[in-house]
Write a structure and sequence with these properties.
Helix 2 (24-54) packs antiparallel against helix 5 (181-191). This protein has helices at residues 14-21, 24-54, 58-64, 174-178, 181-191, 194-205, and strands spanning 2-6, 66-70, 79-83, 87-89, 96-98, 101-104, 111-114, 116-117, 137-140, 144-148, 156-160, 164-167, 169-173. The strands form five sheets. The chain has a three-stranded antiparallel beta sheet. A three-stranded antiparallel beta sheet has the order 5-6-7, with no helix packed on it. The chain contains six helices and 13 strands. By secondary structure, the chain is of the alpha+beta class. Strand 5 (96-98) and strand 6 (101-104) form a beta hairpin. The longest helix has 31 residues, at 24-54.
Length: 211
């Protein structure tokens, strides 16, 4: 699991906000509200950016930034999001089956993954299996097992066995992608919006007296 903590550059003005609002407690409440408001917006934007750089559907990218982390409180003034997960299954990257293999587009680079498949049966009458959940698979081994005689190792008896196959992964790891590229840039730019939001919260708490 990777935890990303973003601290806005407006923290240097906390003392000024304290003077305006009368107490540091009120200033910290204003800051925590501003951080959470800005963090929620930027989290959605970073999710969209994550989808753009990985090729994931937009809704999937937004779900990647989980609020199971920590929202800002007056005593912490820190907004944390968690990203976790392993190698993402290839099926999530607009996968479709062709005769040569499954075509998919991890990181928006579409290519055919040779010998992979999503359906069963002979071409052109391929059928989807409901319990396969549209996953992408590749066969393991050649579908045979070999019994080798101890007396004659060159005389191996080949027997047909049940075909084994495994799910194909994309090589895309969400925690790694969250802290690089377009996704990381979204957080850097988002932090620049913090101070204007702090000023908005200060005005709200002073009922517009401070402008």
């Amino acid at each position: 699991m990777i935890v990303m903590t973003v601290v806005g550059s407006g923290m240097a003005q906390l003392e000024e906000a304290t003077i305006v609002l009368g107490t540091q407690g009120r200033a910290r409440r204003a800051y925590s509200r501003a951080i959470n408001h800005t963090g929620d917006i930027v989290r959605n934007e970073a999710g969209s950016a994550l989808s753009a750089q990985t090729g994931l559907p937009n809704r999937t990218g937004k779900k990647a930034y989980r609020i199971s982390g920590e929202r800002a409180k007056p005593d912490t003034l820190t907004y944390v999001v968690n990203g976790q997960g392993g190698d993402i299954a290839l099926k999530y990257f607009k996968a479709r089956e062709t005769k040569k293999g499954v075509s998919a587009a991890p990181r928006n680079a579409r290519r055919v993954f040779a010998s992979t498949f999503m359906k069963a049966g002979w071409w052109p009458k391929r059928v989807g299996k409901p319990n396969w959940n549209k996953q992408v698979f590749i066969r393991q081994g050649d579908g045979y097992k070999y019994n080798i005689s101890k007396n004659n190792p060159f005389n191996a008896k080949r027997e047909r066995m049940k075909t084994n196959f495994r799910k194909v992964k994309s090589g895309v790891f969400v925690p790694q992608e969250m802290v690089q590229g377009l996704a990381a840039e979204a957080w850097r730019k988002g932090a620049q919006r913090l101070q204007p939001r702090v000023e908005h919260e200060v005005r709200a708490m002073t009922k517009g007296i401070v402008s």
